[in-house]
Amino acid sequence: MRLLRSFPVLAFCLVLLSLAGYCLSQKSLVLLLVAGTLAIVSWYVTEGPRGRNLPSWASHLLVLGVSLNVLFDWYQNQGDWMGVLGRYAVWLTVIKLFEHKTQRDYSQLFAFSFLLMVIGSLQSADLLFSLVLVVYIALGVYVLLLHQMHGAYEREKDDRNNVIPRGYRLAPILKPVIGPRVGVQFRLFALILGLGGLLLSILVFLAFPRGIGEDKLPGLPSAIKRRVAFLDQVNLGGGSRITDSRRPIMRVQILDQDGVPLTDAPFFMRAGVLDQYLAGGKWRAVPHEPVVIDATANEFSPLADNLADETSYVVQHVKLDMAFDQLPSIATPVSIQSSSISNFEYNPVTQIIRKPPHVGRLMAYDIRAQTRPSQQTRDTLLHGSDLDRVWRDTSRYRSRRVRELATELLSRSGEQTSRPIDPRMEWSWNRRAADSFNRYLRSSQFTYTLDLSDVSASAPDNDPIAQFLFDTKKGHCEYFASALAAMCHTVGIQARLVIGYVAYEYNESTREYIISESNAHAWVEVRTGSATWEAFDPTPPAVLSALHDVPASFPDRVQRIWSNLENGIGSNFLDFDAAIQRDLTALMDMGWTDRLGAMWQMARDWSRRVNESFLLGPAGYIWMGIVALALSIAVIALIKLMRRSLAIRRVLHLQHLSGREYQRMLRQLGFYIDMLYVLKKGGHGKPSWQPPALFADSLTGTKPEVAECVHVITDIFYASRYGKQPLTKLHSQNAQESLQQLASLLHVKM
Amino acid sequence: MIQRLRSHLPFLFYLGLTIVIAVPAMSNQNNLLFWVFGVLVAGLTLSIVIPFWMLRGLEIRRLDPQHGAVGEPLNVRYVVKNRKWLVPVFNLHLEDQPLDHPRSWQKLMKPARAWIMHIGPGDSVHGDAVYWPKRRGEARFCQVRVRTSFPFGLVKRTITVAQDQHTLIFPRLFELRRGLLSSLTPIGLLGMRVSQHTGSGDDYYGLREYRPGDSLRRIAWKRTAQIGELVCIEHANPSPPKIRVVLDLTTPTDQLQSSRAEGLSGKQLEEMAISLAASIVHAAHESGYEVGLSLPGTGVAQIAMRHSKWHVNKIMAALASIDLGAQRIVSTGPTLLDAERAGLVVISPARVTPMTSREDVLYFTGLHLKTLAVGALGWETVTYASLPAYESVMNGEGEEAA
């Protein structure tokens, strides 16, 4: 039979898919090539023309070898226990593929393949792996259905052979009993089952409460925890957020006060301020005390009270495609609005807005920002923060060699080499000094590159900034910005690293800037006033423009489509969290909660009015409750009575009767229906084709006591139904007694 | 009809797996794992719902099983109709439930199952359970249990349908030695004799007056010439040879002298005697004999000699129905007609007791089966040499003995 014969092939495909999925999740091409090739060879070896299987002793030996290797692997990679487990499962699966496969072996193979996909799910969230997982689940459902049939067939064959006494030369062959069009119906059934399962799984996915038990198992790999697009740190010593990925992360529309889109790119969007330097090229944000902004939905909430000059601003509409904790903004933000979050955290020192940590993902927000705020606005936005104290308390970059370079640059540009004593001179000196450093870094001595493969990971003196300034002289924007901030620090200028994005790519059709991961950028803010910071970007502008404003080539466009797809799935599926769940619930509710609440309130009002008009007092509510209960019981009883009448009419074929005879039978012959119910519940249901008397006779052989009761009831039934004799009280009593006896004999509760 | 939901080991394993998947999903807030968890929950839900859905609207009936015979397959056929108009049914197992009754089927044979892979909507299919009876007797069936664990094998749902039926398992038949039957018949090899009825044979029976329509060839011309009116010759009806088998069960089982040398109990000797009687009846019928049966000691009325398939089945049914545990009726001995012109074979389980004054009676005991039988009929490779051990298997007295 073709359906059953297709099982081994599909089972093999399923296992192969899980191997491929696991290798994809690990991004291990070598493992894919080795394990995949061995798996494919196993098919030829076991199912090919010669059809040989691995002897059990050999497979045991191989398993032993693999287990020993796993112990060694475990000893070497103790932190990566999930990877060790995955590799172990891969090799066990491959060995299993070479063995003779019974139903039990197939079950074990499926278990291994499922384990591989689960481990893959824990370690990867790539679109490709997600697609493989979806195909695996779909194929898995079909193969499991076939496995049931195939297993049943094999079991039945074995069982039938076991029943045959030893010594028989020939036994009847087991042929599957099938109806017509079994293949079509099976596939259709599998399709409907798969769709039903998919729907149910999505429901469970959507309804499962998020946030419960988070981080309870710290040992699990966290590679695919919720993806956050932005990390507020820079580490020149290792790892970087600077990437050439064109995956979109947000779309921004910038409008002037009249609602006209502004297109004079580039815009710098501040997302994080790193004002603290740690050793080894690490920049961190100082944890300042935030100000909580209570926001009203769909209404701009100012970031400080009594903000003056609110008329001059630009508005940015931001739609986030990935999860952000900090909300990127151009210029100086003064107010914010969002439809889904009721409060924000505003950092007056860095002027960065964050969503509170307990709040779920934010999908969109609007910010009003001022490009040139007044001094009063700047002071108000500070919320009384003391920037000088912050500067004093913050660890900064120190290096004698860099200080000498900075001093030399200052003297070369004719500036005084130390900080002016007069505070009025300080801010302008800061600006001029930073400008001279900026010019130096933009000179041709320094090269912008993302390829730092030839740069030693361990910088001399654990100082990647000095390495950049004196040795390599090449790097990306983080290096340039770090070098500028570092030089400022060494001569006592208050400077901080700003990380964010550059908006270059403008989509004419949607009038939005599309910001990709590759638009990540870093620059420097230098304090040039009591509450004023001025931005300096030491990255060569030509390079920056060439890097970010690249016309999309065909591969770029393909990559963009893939990225969009990945991003779409990522945004809608992988980043699904409690906030989206709440939004979805609100969307699905469609006002039903309010409607039900209103109905309940109406009922309460009505009962109160009735109570007041009849002057019943508190006891009136009890009486009304009793009346409502009685009405409910009456309705339920009426429904049951109607159902019983319909059952009597259907079972006893009373359709052709009418009038008094019909009514009499409906009234009196309920006991026969009860008898059928008791017999059915007791495992002795009357076949529809068997007449009542014959059925009663058939019970005599096996259950004489039951048969006796059935005989009594059947006789009364015959007399009333076909003899047309109205039941007397005695008959009814006899029937009821026999019915009770029957129920007790069959242990059925009526 | 009783419906039951049964879980088993795969269900518990699956439940454990679902919980195991939920834990890292919650810990990591991993949406891929949340979805996999959703798929597992969906699978569990469907595993509970679908079998219930499938078993609804099924009409199950066991067809009247024809008689079986020891050592031959007995097909019990079930008719299952799927009354649902849209939903097919997959992977149904049907089996008869053991019955707490002295004549329950499980005393005669091992359980067997019918498997139906698919029934389309509105279709009706037949599924066969092949039993292999080990003992003769009456097999009573009562409840049919239908089970499915489709789609994922996690949950078994069963329904039980009551249908009381019984069938008879005939005794084991053996092929007898060549020439045995001819030695039983009193009159030569031909065995045909003239009956007392007119018929179409060749033997002369008598004369009668001519009737319109008689063939001219049948007119006895000489006699006609003598008496002056037309007379016809009548031929006698040919009669096949006859055998009456007498199975003497007047001696109760416990009073039988068991054959210690052969290691056989009284009951085994009786069973062998029954098998020998059945084998002789079968062989005689196959050879064209008229066969009759007497069962002294059992209270069963004497069965006349006839030659038909139906008649042989009647004799086999009588042999199958013998209850060796019942009280023997000694007083009403067999009324064997000395004048009955038939071969007479008397079979006793252990010791031969003369039952008639006729001299041409052959007496056998149950043990003679070993010498008279060549081998079991059917597909079996059992020979008479291995019979004692095999009979003990038949009686359920030790599978190991075989």
Could you characterize the architecture of this molecule?
The complex is a heterodimer of chains A (750) and B (402). Chain A has a seven-stranded antiparallel sheet with strand order 7-11-14-8-2-19-18. In chain A, strands 10-3-17-20-21 form a five-stranded antiparallel sheet. In chain A, strands 6-12-13-9 form a four-stranded antiparallel sheet, with no helix packed on it. Chain A is an alpha+beta fold and 750 residues long. The two termini of chain A are 48 Å apart. Chain A contains 24 helices and 21 strands. Helix content of chain A is 53%, strand content 13%. Chain A folds into five domains: 2-164 and 182-207, no CATH class; 237-389, no CATH class; 390-500 and 520-549, Roll (C8orf32 fold), CATH 3.10.620; 593-636; 652-745, no CATH class. Residues 223-228 of chain A have low confidence and may be disordered. In chain A, helix 2 (7-26) packs antiparallel against helix 7 (127-163) and helix 22 packs antiparallel against helix 23. With 402 residues, chain B is α+β, with helices and mostly antiparallel strands. Chain B has three domains: 1-170, Immunoglobulins (Immunoglobulin-like); 174-186 and 241-401, no CATH class; 193-239, no CATH class. Chain B is built from eight helices and 19 strands. In chain B, the strands form five sheets. In chain B, strands 1, 3, 5, 6, 8 and 9 form a six-stranded mixed sheet that branches. The relative contact order of chain B is 0.12. The chains are: A alpha+beta (750), B alpha+beta (402). Chains A and B meet through helix 6, helix 7, helix 8 and helix 21 of A and helix 1, helix 2, strand 5, strand 6 and strand 7 of B.
